[in-house]
Amino acid sequence: ALLVLLINAQVTVTWSSSLALAPAPSCKSIECPAYDIIEQGEGYEIRRYNHTLWMSTSPIPNISFVNATRTGFLRLFDYIQGKNDEHAKVPMTAPVLTDILPSTGPFCESSFAVSFYVPTKFEKAPPKAEESLALEQKRWDVRYAAVRRFGGFVSDYNVGEEASKLQVSLSGSPWEPSLSLYSVAQYNSPFEYDGR
């Protein structure tokens, strides 16, 4: 899994051709968004994503990252299985991205939005989701993300730990996050146990 902090930093970006267009993990058989690696540091990398299209859930209030992600994924899965205005099957892509807006106190619900990367084949005119799924299209302009990779299954317990580790890694750098929003990008199927 990857922990992603979307950042809005005012920095001068230097780009190294030796870091260009690295493939995302587990993207050998399904489409993933391309990105450039701008910088690699201890415990993080900075990525630049170009224009991409995502299908996203409306915010899901929940105390559990895992439960909210499952709820959102099932709605997105219905969409790619044909619950759209064209009854089209849309190929599975990676990652499944969960945006997290943390709650302000313990035992309070956070807000989660789960997103599916729309394949380039459908990017210009994606099928519209059935209204009951409460999905919306989100177009990203160029976006920078601070990323921390970690293995295993994502749980309600390790999401916060990994977010803290990423923030510590970025502390004092020009990429230090100024936002309280972070995301988890899951590239592996829940049925994959090897290579996580």
Automatic annotation (TrEMBL):
It holds the Pfam family SOUL. Gene3D superfamilies: Regulatory factor, effector binding domain. The keyword Signal applies. The keyword ATP-binding does not apply. It comes from the Eukaryota. Residues 1-16 form the signal peptide. Keywords: Signal. Belongs to the HEBP family. This is Heme-binding protein 2. It comes from Taxus chinensis (Chinese yew).
